[in-house]
Amino acid sequence: MSQTLIEAESNEGVLTLTICRPEALNALNQTVIAQLAEAIENAQSDSNIRVILLTGSGPKAFVAGADIKEFADFNARQGKELARKGQELLFNRIERSAKPVIAAINGFALGGGLELALACHVRIAASGARMGLPEVSLGVIPGYGGTQRLPQLVGKGKALEMILTAQMVTADEAHQWGLVNAVVSPEELMSAANQMAKAMMKNSPKAIQTAIQAVLAGYEDGLNGYDAEISCFGASFETEDFKEGTQAFIEKRKPEFTGK
Ligand code: CAA
C-alpha cells in the first residue's frame, strides 16, 4: 500500500486537505495526484462537507510543481499521458467540484502547484508566497491547465509574461494581477481561508453548485455561458433551497438550507 500523502481534517463542514511531501516541497507525484483526486471525489458525496480547503505541509511550499524526478526520462507518449491523466483525474475535477475549493497558498506555488491553485475556485496567499510557471526553464510547457486557466485570471499578456519569462511573482503582485483573491500574513492564512469558507456556507449549497456550473460553462467549448446561466437560473426555482431562501427572507429569519 502506498504511503498516505494527503492529510484530511474535517471541522464544522470544512474539509482541509494538506499535501504532505515537505521533503520534496509537496511536488505532485502520481501518488499525490491519485490520493488528492480520491479525497476530492469522496468529499462530493459527504453531506457533512460544504467547502474544501487545499494547502501544503511545512512553511516553505504549497506545491513546487509536478515531480520533475518522476518524469525526467519520459518520452512524448508518456508526457502526453501524464498531462491528460492529471488534468482529467484531478485538475478538472477540482474545477468542477460541486463544493467550493479554496487554495490556501502557504509558500511556493510553481508549475503544477500553481496550476493546482488555478483549478481551485478561490485563492488566498500568505504574504511570503511565490508563484510562477517555470516549465519553459525545464524545456517543457505547463501541462496541468496553466496555459488556459492563467490567461482566464490575469489576461493573455500577463499570462504570457509569466509563462515565457518563467519568473516568479510575489503574493502582492499576484493580488494586483487578480491571480489571488487575498493576501494575508502566514499566521492568518488558514483562519482567513476558514472565514471565507464560513461566508460561503451561509448560502445555499445547491445554488453554489449551480453557480459554479454556470461560470464554467462560459469557458467550455461548444457551450454558451449566457444560455447555461438562463437554464441554471430556471432550474434553481425548482429547488428546496430556493423555497427556503425566499421564505426565510419573507419571514425575516435565517434560512436553513438542505442543499436540495
Ligand atoms: N519535483 C521534484 N522534486 C522537487 C521539486 C519538484 N518540482 N521541487 C523541489 N523538489 C525537491 C528538490 O529536488 C529538493 O530535494 P533534495 O533535497 O532531495 O535535493 C527538495 O525538494 C528541496 O528543494 P530545493 O533544495 O531545490 O529548495 P530551494 O529552497 O533551494 O528551492 C525552489 C526551492 C525554488 C522551489 C526549487 O526547489 C525549484 O525550483 N523547484 C522546482 C520548481 C519547478 O520547476 N516546478 C515546475 C515543475 S514542472 C511542472 O510542474 C510540469 C507541469 O506543468 C505538469
Task: Give a verbal description of the structure.
Helix content is 47%, strand content 16%. With 260 residues, it is an alpha/beta fold. The protein has a six-stranded mixed β-sheet with strand order 1-2-3-5-7-10, with helices on both faces. A four-stranded mixed β-sheet has the order 4-6-8-9. Helix 4 packs across helix 5, helix 5 (146-154) packs across helix 6 and helix 9 (205-217) packs antiparallel against helix 10 (225-236). The longest helix is centred in the first third of the chain and has 20 residues, at 76-95. It is globular, with a radius of gyration of 19 Å. The termini are far apart. The structure holds acetoacetyl-coenzyme A.
Low-confidence stretches: none
Strand order of the largest sheet: 1-2-3-5-7-10
Helix and strand content put the structural class at alpha/beta
* Strand residue percentage: 15-25%
List the bound ligands: acetoacetyl-coenzyme A
Q: Between the first and last Cα atoms, what is the distance in angstroms? A: 38 Å
Q: What's the mean pLDDT score?
A: 97
Helix content: 40-55%
Query: What top-tier CATH class of the largest domain fits best?
Result: Alpha Beta
CATH architecture of the largest domain: Alpha-Beta Complex
CATH topology call of the largest domain: 2-enoyl-CoA Hydratase, Chain A, domain 1
Shape: globular
Q: Give me the count of strands.
A: 10
Number of helices: 11
